[in-house]
Amino acid sequence: MTVSKEISIDGGRAHYLELGRGRPVVLLHGIPGDSRTWRYNVDVLASRFRVLALDLPGWGRSEMPRRFAYSLEDLARFVHGFSTALELERPSLMGLHLGGLVALETALRHPDQMGRLVVIGAPLLSTDTPLRLEPPGSLLGRLWFKLGSARAVKRLMRRGFLDRGNLTADLVPGYARALRRGRTLQGIALGNAAIRERWPELRRDLARLATPTLAVWGAEDAVTSLDNARFLVDTAPDAALFVVGHTGHCCHEEAPAGFNRAVMEFLGGR
After folding, report:
1. What domains can be seen in the chain, in order of their start residue?
2. Which of 31, 164, 212, 249 could form a disulfide with 160 if both were Cys (CB 3.0 to 4.6 A apart)?
3. What is the pLDDT of residues 175-210, one digit of tens each?
4. CA separation (Å) from 52 to 6, 15, 99, 265?
5. 10 Å Cβ neighbour count for 46?
6. Are 74 and 68 in contact (CB under 8 A)?
7. pLDDT tens for residues 50-99?
């Protein structure tokens, strides 16, 4: 049974879902999103692992800590703090889009403390993706953005699915709710600039990534193309590629059976 839990990280309340026993695997969603994005994966993974699906700061039921700039450095510190607080021994990290960048950043900063990485649809060749969601600067513009956030989220998420029938109606309002929080909007604005500044260095640092990594990509990803996956595999010393056929960016939701088999086999390796 999946258990909803909370823990204090960086002065803010962090929410996560936990299920299973064994070696720990921490799941990091993309933006917009929260831990519900893994709803087709956690039960299968939990048959062999201790699965912890974390809501990133400001999303889902996690608070935005004060003075949190939403940079990759801040997000990696948040994930490492989460792992340390729960005394997780060499956790593996699995991340979608921004969550994939955070997984890579965390492993680069703490190479001896991580297990394995699964990176899904991470933007490594360009930041011109939904990651660049920019809240307007004016008061009237921010008000309009908040009121129209559901439409904005739906438009972004529609790009993520090859079969849009997989985009369930209940997800959009929940994901959009985070954009109505003033501090989350502020965090996105700060984070976009900070992430773009760090992004070129992260690409170069992949050459020293010591952590075994599996890049999992939808064959027809319209958000981050397969060229991003090939760049990761060609640059990182110990990386492999698994392509999920007939899926888009959210391959873990569109074809969970094939996705889960590949991830289980990789995470179960020695």
Report:
1. 3-267 (3.40.50.1820)
2. 249
3. 877 777 766 766 666 667 778 788 889 999 999 999
4. 11, 10, 14, 18
5. 19
6. yes
7. 999 999 998 999 998 877 888 899 999 999 999 999 999 999 999 999 99
